[in-house]
């Protein structure tokens, strides 16, 4: 599903992120399960990840990230018209985590709801809100990717527990003023024939959680890593190429590629296939691991605040996750 720039242009007016204080290193994980810093670093690029405190929920992290994005955008919470949170780890099955965040921010005039598209959720939220703003339904939107993956991680499974972390990232979207940036092109896709490759089997109507299956870790993430890896490289490359082409860009026109932060080998393969030099590809997974929907949102904020791209330059974001789902966006900043 794709779109090109429509009449009312939409820009990203501010970004923010939040990471919990607690750092969990590879060395600490090597005490919990049969792994090593050498294996995790060489196979994934991850050195450490953040773990939310016990009473720290997804909505708390989302609220911190949102406040920073609003501050940068110079927007008051009561002026926000739409809040979309992308998460697979909501505070509660219902109501949506976005409702808690609306209350915490004091964004009392905003419509608020969640979407579930795993690691692709933040760019799904970007496309949805871009369209709703350009159609005139809303003047602005606060989109947030936030996850407490530590709550759905099987800490006995070395094939997954070394990969994930907690955190949140946010962006404020609004109508562009003349001379401001613009979301140039977006792409998203889904392949529901591959749900079995990456999922949380329990906790829904198909397999409600009981004491017995909780002991079997059915409420935690399972993944067929090698298969997911292959699809991730192919789908992200295709999605990025589509938005680059629709935006009328060449690889040399892109100041910064911000990919999903799951595995450094996936990121390197995509940079190579897109012919974008590694120094123009933003990486922070060494510090945070894979934070699902939050990953590209946190990376966008860190890339922006660190000066990885400037006003008027082009960036490309591209993501991939459970579903399988994928998405990309080309943005002139
Ligand atoms: O965010 C959603 C998208 N997710 C992704 O994109 C993740 C994609 N997949 C991956 O990143 C990689 O497949 C992994 C990092 C998950 C795994 O890397 P891999 O190179 O595909 O390793 P593998 O699963 O083929 O395992 C290789 C070996 C196995 O041992 P044997 O069978 O060769 O003896 C595993 O048992 O490494 C073993 N292994 C480990 N060893 C030490 C698996 N996990 C670990 C571990 N520490 N943590």
The CATH topology of the largest domain corresponds to Peroxisomal Thiolase, Chain A, domain 1
Count of DSSP strands: 14
Q: Please outline the major beta sheet.
A: 5 strands, mixed
Small-molecule components bound = oxa(dethia)-CoA
Overall structural domain count: 2
Class by SSE composition: alpha+beta
- What is the CATH architecture term of the largest domain? 3-Layer(aba) Sandwich
- Mean of residue pLDDT values: 96
What is the fourth-level CATH superfamily of the largest domain? Thiolase/Chalcone synthase
Q: Widest sheet: strand order?
A: 1-9-14-13-12
**Stretches where pLDDT falls below 50 for ≥5 residues?**
none
What is the multimeric organization of the chains shown? Answer: single chain
Strand fraction equals: 25-35%
- SSE series: EEEHHEHEHEHEHEEEHEHEHHHEE
Helical element count? Answer: 11
Rg over CA atoms, rounded to whole Å, is 19 Å
CATH class group of the largest domain: Alpha Beta
* Helix amount: 25-40%
Taking the alpha carbons of the first and last residues, their distance comes to: 23 Å
